[in-house]
Amino acid sequence: MLGAMKADLRTTYLGLGLASPLVASSSPLTGDVDSLRVLEDAGVAAVVLPSVFEEEVGEEPAGPLELPPAYAELLAGAKSALRIPVIASLNGTTSGGWLRLAELLQQAGADALELNVYAVETDPYTSGAAVEERTLRIVHRIKSTVRIPVAVKVSPFYTAFAHVADRLVDARADGIVLFNRFLQPDIDLELLTVAPHLKLSSSDEIRLTLRWIAILRGRIPVSLAATGGVHDVEDVVKLIAVGADAVMLASALLERGPAVVGELTAELGAWLDAHGYASVAALRGAVSSAGVTDPAAFERAQYIAALEAGV
Ligand SMILES: Cc1cc2nc3c(=O)[nH]c(=O)nc-3n(C[C@H](O)[C@H](O)[C@H](O)COP(=O)(O)O)c2cc1C
C-alpha cells in the first residue's frame, strides 16, 4: 500500500525537483493534454512531450520562426493543466536556424528541453569525429540561447562514448538521456519494400544503459536519465542503483496503460523499505563503477569471467 511506504522517492533531474524518478518519455501518450493529465494523476513525476522535428520547419527557416501551432497549443495546454515539470523535445541533426525553436519553447514555458540527435550516418565521407562535432555544436548553440536546462538524448553507437559524454558536459549539457532506440526497418517480402517497424521494448534492453550509467556515474557531473526497456520494478531499481537520476517509460505505458506508473511507484517504495534504503538517493550509485579505478579493465575482467563461466 502506498500509504505505508516510508522511503523518500524524491529525485532531482536537470535541477528540477521530482516526486519520484519515474518520468513519461516522449511518445504519443505525451502528445495530448488529456492523456498528460492521466499520466500525472497516475503518478509520473515529469513528462517529455513528443519531439518537434527539424523537418517540420526546415534547417534554415526563412523569416521569423514560429513554433508549429499544434505544438504551441500542446505545450501551453500542458503547462496550464499540469503541476509536474514539462520537458519539450527537439529532434534534429543540424546546427542550422531551426535551433531557434529552443528559445520559442523556453518562451512558451517549457521547464527543460530534451534534444534528440537521432541520425543514421550513411555518408561514407563523414567521420565519427565529424558526427560528434556536429552534435556538440548543436548543444553549444542551444545552450547559448536558453537558460532552461537541456538534456541530450543520444544513441549508444559511439566508439568512445565516455569521451562523448565528457564533451557534452563541456558543451554545457545539463543531462544525458541514454539511449535512443533506433527504428530498425524490416523488409515486406510480399511487396519487396521497406516496412517501417516500430517494436515496443522489453526489459532485456536496459542492459546497455545499465552499463553506461554505471560507468558515467561519479565521473561526469550531469543528470543521467535511462530510457529503453523499463518495464518492471527490478528495471527501475537496477537503473537507480547504477546511478540514474530519472527512469523513463514509453513502451510500458503504451502496453499496460498509465496505471503501470502507480504500480511501479508503490513497488519501488516497497523494495526500498524491504531492503533498508531510506530513499532513492541512498540507493543511487550503490553499484556504479565510481569506485573502480579502471572501468575498462573491470569490463574486460567481466567479459573474460562471463566467457569462462559459459553464460
Ligand atoms: C510510438 C513512439 C513514439 C516515440 N516518439 C518519440 C519522439 O517523438 N521523440 C523522442 O525523442 N523519442 C520518441 N520515442 C522514443 C521513446 O521516448 C523512448 O526513448 C523509447 O521508446 C525507449 O523507451 P521504452 O523502452 O520505454 O519504450 C517514441 C517511442 C515510441 C514507442
Key phrases:
single chain, 311 residues, alpha/beta, eight-stranded parallel barrel, two-stranded antiparallel ribbon, 12 helices, 39% helix, binds flavin mononucleotide
- Ranges where pLDDT stays below 50 over 5 or more residues in a row are none
Strand line-up of the largest beta sheet: 3-4-5-6-7-8-11-12
Helical content band:
25-40%
Residue fraction in strands: 15-25%
Topology:
Layout lengths: L10 E3 L2 E3 L3 E3 L8 H10 L3 E8 H4 L11 H13 L4 E6 L9 H7 L4 E5 L11 H16 L6 E5 L6 H10 L4 E4 L7 E3 L4 E3 L10 H11 L6 E4 L6 H10 L3 E4 L1 H6 L2 H16 L5 H4 L11 H15 L2
Parallel strand pairs: 3-4, 3-12, 4-5, 5-6, 6-7, 7-8, 8-11, 11-12
Antiparallel strand pairs: 1-2, 9-10
Helix pairs in contact: 7-8, 8-10
Can you describe what's shown?
By secondary structure, the chain is α/β, with parallel strands linked by helices. The chain has twelve helices and twelve strands. The chain has helices at 33-42, 54-57, 69-81, 101-107, 128-143, 161-170, 206-216, 233-242, 251-256, 259-274, 280-283, 295-309; strands at 11-13, 16-18, 22-24, 46-53, 86-91, 112-116, 150-154, 175-178, 186-188, 193-195, 223-226, 246-249. The strands form three sheets. An eight-stranded parallel β-barrel has the order 3-4-5-6-7-8-11-12, surrounded by eight helices. Strands 1-2 form a two-stranded antiparallel ribbon. A two-stranded antiparallel ribbon has the order 9-10. Helix 8 (233-242) links the parallel strand 11 and strand 12. The longest helix has 16 residues, at 128-143. It is globular and about 60 Å long. It starts with 10 loop residues before the first strand and ends with a helix. Flavin mononucleotide (FMN) is lined by residues 25-28, 50-51, 89, 91, 116, 153, 181, 198, 201, 227-230, 249-252.
